[in-house]
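Many introductory courses stop at the sequence. We go one step further.
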Amino acid sequence: MKINELLDYTGQLLQVDRYRDYCPNGLQVAGRAEVRTIVTGVTASLDLLEAAAGLDADLVLVHHGYFWKNENPCVTGIKHARLKFLLAHDMNLVAYHLPLDAHPELGNNVQLAQVLGLQLDGWGGEQNLVAMGFPISPQPLQEFGMHIGRKLGREPMIIGRPGQEIHRVAWCTGAAQDALDQAIAWGVDAFISGEISERTVHLARESGVAYIAAGHHATERYGVQALGRHLAERYGLNHHYVELDNPV
């Protein structure tokens, strides 16, 4: 499979031009022209690159790549080590950030809903990145949080009354704690994201909308796997997902 053909298809599939993002979406570091093996992971850390090289990857596909807005552009230190490794192994690095969060079939929000058993019935917020829906059955916040912990293999941080009944929820994976304002305006009972800030605690307590911080990494593992599987099935490629534990 030619890398350019794969990129054309994926760019159209994810509608990358629709989004105002904090990093470039698509090919970030060029490698060999032919792709036979894709390795997916959440973040393009050196650990992931080394694992990908061990799996003879031609393409490393991630959610969190490089060249973020306002970062130091100099190629030194950790950035130098990562880029040097990629170039030495002639591997392509491809990253999709917001387009992968929001895709209606392969995106992080939809995939997380499937893992947690949430029924999705709407979208909203900035760039339509926040999902809305409901659990299969209403349940107390404490029980709902325990369910999330079992499904994600990570105990979430829960802000709210343990006995509060959860009927409707909103969610946005990763570091979307500031979307809690939008969730409050919608009148949901709980909002799920990955990270939490100090200010989030007060907002949740004073609004009565519970906040569940389920882990940035833990909530964003599923979209990139779904995209990798989709590309492998469509083009007859090998696909490996590499899970690297991250407590955040």
